[in-house]
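pasting input
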Amino acid sequence: MDEQKRAQFKKVLREIKNLPTLPGIVAKLGKMAEDPDTTTEQMGRVISKDHILASKLLKLVNSAFYGFPQRISSLNSAIILLGFNVIKSLIISASIFEVMEAQDVELWEHSLGCAVVCNVLARHLGVKDPEEISTAGLIHDIGKVAIKMELPREYEKITELSQEKKISRLEAEREILGLDHSEVGSWLAKSWNLPNKLVEPIACHHDPHLAKEEQQASAIVHFANIMIRGLGYGHAGDIWVPPLNNKAWKLLALAPADIDPLLREVEEKLWDVKGFSLDIQTGQEGAA
Amino acid sequence: MVLAKEILNPEGMVLCGAGTALTPALIERLIGMDIVDVTVEGHPVILEGEKTLQEELHEIDVRFQRVEDIAPLMYLKKRIQAKLAAARNTEAAAK
Ligand SMILES: [Fe+2]
Ligand SMILES: [Fe+2]
């Protein structure tokens, strides 16, 4: 790989002009969350100023994709029930949802499916904030969206190379760009000041053994990506199930007997999120 | 056909529980309530263009082609295929 070329791609991708910045509200809420005197009402008031964001947030909270058992009808109860961190990650999801949904429907389905599996796995493993892991699953391939938007010519070449040589998209990215979508995704997540709980799983979802702090979250996203590809839900650029990292597999410590119930739960939830869209202007809410 | 999942109204209230048999009268009533989709047990309707079980099993084989040396993934593949075959069998038995 030509070093100069790699540096050039890196520069373009790091500058990212075509992806939207996160709404200012995320930074504001982040500051509020750090202040111990902030009340739920204050936070609710800030969010509800943005009507569209507030309704998207409630729609997301009530979707099968986060799997809360009861219906949450007000912002304040959502904040009390879920806590600041989860709300913040939901706002980030809502904003990123928008970009992904518009860019690539099949990748969007893959991401949504991966988020569902993350949620099921995280709950099964008793992780503290399963919503954060779902969010990581939702945006794990955001680097692919960035490559498509910023380097459309190379994006086409990657597709061609992967088909021609029958190699995975990841390998083709490394060959053509000298870097891959997990690296690009991690820059993006860092530039949005996302917490490390999201950055590391994005950066390490193909190499979870490289995770330093968020090993469990990275292992969950890694295996969720494998499971959703195995189920053939959505499409992530090539058809193959990627290899399983041994270290991540040991860390998850799943028994063969866990697989059937996990698959059953995943399939049920996938059915529920099918066709889920955050477009609150045109999207109708399913009646059933 | 039997409901595999309860039907909720937009407020989240249960209209019909899982296990309820869908009679023509009930279907009429649901249509009247603007319920557009429900989840039923098994796989009662073959949609046009839908793949056969053999085709689907083969597609799963192809997807897992690159990881044949990874035992846990081969087990995962076996379970996904078994589940699919079981779902199709209930559908065959329902006819
Ligand atoms: Fe990926
Ligand atoms: Fe992926």
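fyi The longest helix of chain A spans residues 75-103.
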